[in-house]
TrEMBL record, chains A, B:
<dbReference type="InterPro" id="IPR001917">
    <property type="entry name" value="Aminotrans_II_pyridoxalP_BS"/>
</dbReference>
<comment type="pathway">
    <text>Amino-acid biosynthesis; L-histidine biosynthesis; L-histidine from 5-phospho-alpha-D-ribose 1-diphosphate: step 7/9.</text>
</comment>
<dbReference type="InterPro" id="IPR015424">
    <property type="entry name" value="PyrdxlP-dep_Trfase"/>
</dbReference>
<keyword id="KW-0808">Transferase</keyword>
<dbReference type="GO" id="GO:0004400">
    <property type="term" value="F:histidinol-phosphate transaminase activity"/>
</dbReference>
<feature type="modified residue" description="N6-(pyridoxal phosphate)lysine">
    <location>
        <position position="210"/>
    </location>
</feature>
<feature type="domain" description="Aminotransferase class I/classII large">
    <location>
        <begin position="25"/>
        <end position="347"/>
    </location>
</feature>
<dbReference type="InterPro" id="IPR015421">
    <property type="entry name" value="PyrdxlP-dep_Trfase_major"/>
</dbReference>
<keyword id="KW-0032">Aminotransferase</keyword>
<keyword id="KW-0028">Amino-acid biosynthesis</keyword>
<comment type="subunit">
    <text>Homodimer.</text>
</comment>
<dbReference type="InterPro" id="IPR004839">
    <property type="entry name" value="Aminotransferase_I/II_large"/>
</dbReference>
<keyword id="KW-0368">Histidine biosynthesis</keyword>
<dbReference type="Pfam" id="PF00155">
    <property type="entry name" value="Aminotran_1_2"/>
</dbReference>
<comment type="similarity">
    <text>Belongs to the class-II pyridoxal-phosphate-dependent aminotransferase family. Histidinol-phosphate aminotransferase subfamily.</text>
</comment>
<keyword id="KW-0663">Pyridoxal phosphate</keyword>
<dbReference type="InterPro" id="IPR005861">
    <property type="entry name" value="HisP_aminotrans"/>
</dbReference>
């Protein structure tokens, strides 16, 4: 604590990301990265721009990237916002659409950055308890005084709401912004982008970190009606004129354009997930039905923390949350088939099978 | 205006950056970019990292880049903060050290993003008038109730304070943070980094955009005592875990390490600046004494707006501020010698010499 800190700084409770060990010999299943490299077309596009022009500012409007995203999502470019990872887009959205004193709703078990943003901006929030089976209780999100945010699929549970359920939440919050955080949508969920023409209070946030293998380049985006996007632009242009560097802009564009590669890799991950889920069930694990690139699992008898620690000793990193209601679970990112074989082998040893 | 905007969004007055025309045939002297490319070592370092590892998150702590900067500046790595351009570092600093209701001081003619940040966070501010000769009146910055921020050298004037003058401001604001924004320090000013061991209230902000030719990669940094840096980390970790992508991290490191290239290019720019300043004076321009990579100039009889417009017609972009007290000036970034020859030739035509 320092006397020079502002009141905001004193009261922040910063987010703690998953461990990022630098060793290349570990199997990294702890931060939901994609096990496959970015599209070769992405790497080629970046390389072409590594030249003297890096002395020049990037486009402050990111018009090219927005246009590409707009085409892909079937909206116009004024319905697209881009930012420095979906974390930045989320941070701008909390500031841009929510007001102190007007309670916002999000699930009690969810992306743990939400309460951090709320604290940063002095927002009141209600952490709506998930149902016993960890599903989002849709009715509990109706009529929020300040707005709603939830991930779909949710993290770390991996469970998805149907489009109908998302629409119910939108219908019952007509006067407030509903943010659907679709970081993991491409692994099996139904995107709410289809509802954008119908709901002016809908903001959909996505990222290229997961399904497009670009966590290292920090590219996030928001989709919604033009007024919401204009609101985000106002916040962004009051914060940093150029949030994406020249290489991130071109990487994002190339990644969205290479639809074949995207489909190929995400299908591989989905197939691996289903196969591993089945194997874990056969090993007496309770496995939540995942629509993401990770599994949220609990063994019948062996404690999760023990599994986490034993795996770590063997150089396999997964994520354990020491938090009420979920401390009996671990979250396991879907890696390559080879990585998951090693993981399953290690798990068998730990649980004594 | 949208009913979905927060009060903050409704009241923002976003910053407007200089034009970023995409044509490559223009001579771009309007946004203070470096006319020389980044060091070849920087381009090489980036290229080496354009590979499959871009699927992985960058280091959330940016430890390597911080260590490199710490060595260069002669501080320890806990005295270094890095961000997505110095604009982001400034945005975090306004939120991290200044409180609503406690008036902060900055010059009336200065980087026009400062009032934008202040509005974004609901801060009160006093725009302290520059003296008649556009110098910063040091005593007017004493005993600020909320803190102080000023660029040194100042922009768009280009004038620098001496280290003694900066120290006076620090001495008379012991209980509040004084931010010295040194975006242009490498072109002739005296850096306040030398004062960090002596003043715990000093935060120095620099950027790699100007003197290290990396505007396209968005790398800014802050230097100060450990408590101030910890405050910035708290804000950053409440906003975005990974603010610099993998390529920016390595570009920054390589750029700071290549001291020879840095010295060579900045000396070229300083030499060109001095030569052009003399030529402009010979053409009846009033030229402020610049310690930056730009000149702030006013002609004896020809209006600045006219000069700006006529140059633009010829594909030469400079910056004109339609603002009280400085609307008789234009700001001209120092380009290559060839670019400045073309500029001077065009100027001669416009003023009829």
């Amino acid at each position: 604590m320092s006397k020079f800190w502002s009141e905001v700084t004193k009261h922040t409770e910063p987010y703690v990301p998953g461990e990022q060990p630098q060793s290349t010999s570990i199997i990294k299943l702890n931060t939901n990265e994609n096990p496959y490299p970015p599209s070769p077309k992405v790497l080629k596009a970046i390389k072409q721009l590594v030249n003297g022009d890096l002395r020049l500012y990037p486009s402050p409007t990111a018009a090219d990237l927005k246009l590409t995203a707009a085409k892909y999502f079937g909206v116009n470019e004024k319905q697209v916002f881009v930012g420095n990872g979906s974390d930045e887009v989320l941070a701008f959205s909390f500031l841009g659409f929510f007001n102190p004193g007007e309670e916002i709703f999000f699930p009690d078990i969810t992306y743990s950055f939400y309460p951090v943003y709320a604290n940063l901006y002095g927002l009141n929030y209600r952490e709506v308890p998930l149902a016993e089976d960890f599903t989002i209780p849709v009715e509990q999100f109706f009529n929020s005084p300040g707005g709603v945010i939830f991930p779909n699929p949710n993290a770390p549970t991996g469970l998805a709401l149907s489009l109908d359920q998302v629409e119910q939440i939108l219908q019952h919050n007509r006067e407030k912004v509903v943010i659907v955080d679709e970081a993991y949508i491409d692994f099996g969920g139904e995107s709410a982008t289809a509802l954008i023409p119908k709901y002016e209070n809908l903001l959909v946030i996505q990222t290229l970190s997961k399904s497009r293998s670009l966590a290292g380049m920090r590219i996030g985006l928001a989709l919604g009606n033009e007024q919401l996007i204009e609101g985000l632009e106002r916040i962004k242009n009051s914060f940093n004129s150029y949030t994406l560097d020249r290489l991130a802009l071109v990487a994002g564009k190339a990644a969205i354009e290479d639809v074949n590669y995207f489909n190929e890799t995400r299908e591989k991950i989905i197939n691996t997930r289903e196969r591993v889920a089945k194997e874990l069930k056969d090993l007496s694990f309770h496995v939540l039905e995942s629509k993401t690139n990770f599994l949220f699992i609990r063994h019948g008898t062996v404690p999760s923390q023990l599994i986490y620690e034993k795996l770590k000793e063997q150089g396999i990193y997964i994520r354990y949350f020491n938090k009420n209601r979920i401390d009996q679970f671990v979250r396991v990112t879907i890696g390559t088939d080879e990585e998951m074989d090693t993981f399953i082998k290690a798990i068998k040893q730990i649980i004594g099978k």
